[in-house]
């Protein structure tokens, strides 16, 4: 950052690359309009730079990155920075949705309903979420059965544990019919053994 001073007081801080590009010099007078323009250009450069910096660490939805940028930059700079990121392919809500769905299915073991909730919370619209979800085949009943075997088997010994398991699976986004079917299958497999 480069500071522009008037009578020894800092009036505006600008991006150093912009200051070099515009060949700003001490002792030269600048109009208020020119300073506003320079400040706007500096804000945009800094917003783009921060957005790219954030994307170095992990992927973000457009809404998430905009929310982070709005803490430090004006709305016009944020909007322009988001458009720039989309143009260069640095952010793509469809790609973000697919990556998030993969994580929610494989690591969290969530059902369709919960996946849609999580995507909506990240600012992914319903159409984008549905298109991304088309790329995945989710057998919810098999997923529930797997969860029952791996995570909830010790809780299924009494009615209270079964009720807790059902409530948890509903929070995971599974439908009651699929849960009950998987529980019957699980009980049947125990009887066979």
Structure description:
- This protein is mainly α and 193 residues long.
- The chain has 3 domains: 2-88, Winged helix-like DNA-binding domain superfamily/Winged helix DNA-binding domain (Arc Repressor Mutant, subunit A, Orthogonal Bundle), CATH 1.10.10; 93-133, Arc Repressor Mutant, subunit A (Orthogonal Bundle); 140-192.
- The chain is 66% helix and 6% strand.
- It has helices spanning 16-21, 32-55, 62-70, 75-88, 93-106, 112-121, 126-133, 140-152, 159-171, 176-192; strands at residues 2-6, 9-14.
- The protein has a two-stranded antiparallel ribbon.
- A hairpin with a 2-residue loop joins strand 1 and strand 2 (9-14).
- Helix 2 packs across helix 3 (62-70) and helix 2 (32-55) packs across helix 4 (75-88).
Give a summary of the structure in a few sentences.
The chain has ten helices and two strands, in the order ββαααααααααα.
């Amino acid at each position: 950052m480069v500071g522009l001073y008037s009578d020894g007081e800092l009036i505006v801080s600008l991006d150093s690359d912009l200051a070099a590009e515009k060949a700003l010099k001490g002792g030269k007078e600048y109009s208020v309009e020119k300073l506003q323009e320079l400040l706007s250009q500096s804000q945009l450069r800094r917003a783009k730079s921060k957005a790219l910096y954030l994307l170095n660490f992990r992927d973000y939805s457009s809404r998430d990155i905009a929310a982070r940028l709005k803490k430090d930059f004006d709305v016009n700079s944020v909007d322009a920075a988001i458009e720039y990121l989309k143009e260069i392919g640095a952010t793509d809500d469809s790609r973000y949705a697919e990556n998030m769905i993969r994580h929610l299915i494989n690591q969290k073991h969530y059902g369709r309903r919960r996946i849609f909730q999580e995507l909506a919370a990240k600012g992914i619209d319903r159409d984008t979420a549905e298109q991304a979800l088309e790329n995945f085949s989710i057998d919810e009943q098999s997923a529930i059965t797997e969860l029952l075997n791996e995570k909830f088997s010790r809780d299924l010994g009494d009615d209270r544990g079964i009720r807790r398991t059902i409530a948890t699976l509903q929070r995971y986004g599974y439908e009651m019919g699929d849960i009950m079917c998987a529980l019957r299958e699980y009980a049947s497999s125990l009887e066979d053994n």
